Predict the structure.
Amino acid sequence: MLSPTEYDQLDGLGMAALVASGQLTAAELCRAAIARAEAVNPQINAIILPLFEQAQGRATAGLPTGPFGGVPFLLKDFGAAYAGVPQTAGSRALRHYVPTEDAELVRRWQAAGVNILGKTSTPEFALLAVTEPALYGACRNPWNLGHTPGGSSGGSAAAVAAGIVPVAGAGDGGGSIRIPAACCGLFGLKPSRGRVPTGPEQGEKWQGAAVEHVLTRSVRDSAAMLDATQGADVGAPYFLPGSARPYLEEVSREPGRLRIAFTLDHPLGRPLHPECATAVRDAAHLLASLGHDVAEVALPFDGRAVSAAFLMLYFGETGASIASLAAVLGRPTRPADVEPTTWLLGLLGRTYSAADFAAARHTWNDHARRMGRFHQTYDLLLTPTLATPPVRIGELQPKPFEQKLLRVVNTFGLGGLIRRSGLVEKLAEQSLEKTPYTQLANLTGQPAMSVPLHWTADGLPCGVQLIARLGAEDVLFRLAGQLEQARPWFNRRPANLMP
């Protein structure tokens, strides 16, 4: 039997190598993962749908001999459809929804050899930067159980950080890979738009802003998984040329002398938490010591314009999601079917016009061109991933008076009135105040990564973000590999979990 310590010291590729060489079996790995999950999941509430018996059966019967052959894996309960298994998206309205077909990405993950142990928690419809769905309760950060693991891939991040699995599925429509990576001390890369398949049912997710990948402890696991999943599927609306060599090889290659700009400007003009500023300055010093050309610059994009364009998408897609529930429920969707904040977002989505939405999309294109020009001078942009360390559980939930207001607005359908009052803009800025750096790459389609280089004085992770030009995941992986060697984080583990 693999001991907990031995299991914890392996990344996904390390596990697969032992299985391939006959030193371990997939069944032994599966048992170790289940034992770890049973020990720590009650504390962090990351896995909301265990599939342990099925995983044990697959491990015994035999799994594909791919790069992750036999490796325990978890799916986020949003986006990556898994045939025959409930997909609630964190919503009570979808408690009984069961997809009948695997997503193409899930097929590719399985072809790579992973063994799916279950599904992880996400906020309702993956809408928030914290993972506290009413349906399942709060998911907690392994580094400090009183704090959030981030969102919307918070359950996956918590499970990886807690050592249940080395790799877990995640999705990023506004930072939902990078935010939980920063909160949980993990490596999280959002691939370029079009790099990873979205089929067979969807041509693009969130108008192309959302992309799925994984959360990992090691850089090489993320690279190898992107090698296994990249490439257009049938009917894909985008096509990106592949890299010159496998991403896994890029991790061990020298990145060369990169031109890296960093900024400490808050996109919404708010104060930046001192720990986040320290994280960026420290990363800038480290990069300079590694031979890169590093310069501080003013924020190279219009933070308020990006936030406004993102919120238009946010409201509109929420409204569309709520409307689509009618087909699942067999009746019109009602306020009681979803959480009050979700219903309000949907109401707001219906108060804007097609012209409003088109104007917001123009902002996406404007900023894609703006960042293209920026990358003629600089290879990478370094920012904080978050404007604050992980917040406390419940900190971003509506206050009692806000809950009363939500009930009135939702009961009487007063979305238009709320919008005209100016309250939307105020609430919107408050909601993005702590996460203002990640949405840009979703709108422009650029690849971006959060790297765990800093921990706060009280022991909470605080990641930094690096954004590259469209299609330049190879540059990010080369630099991430160098940073991982210079400032190792793999063996830095939370001490807050029992046993």
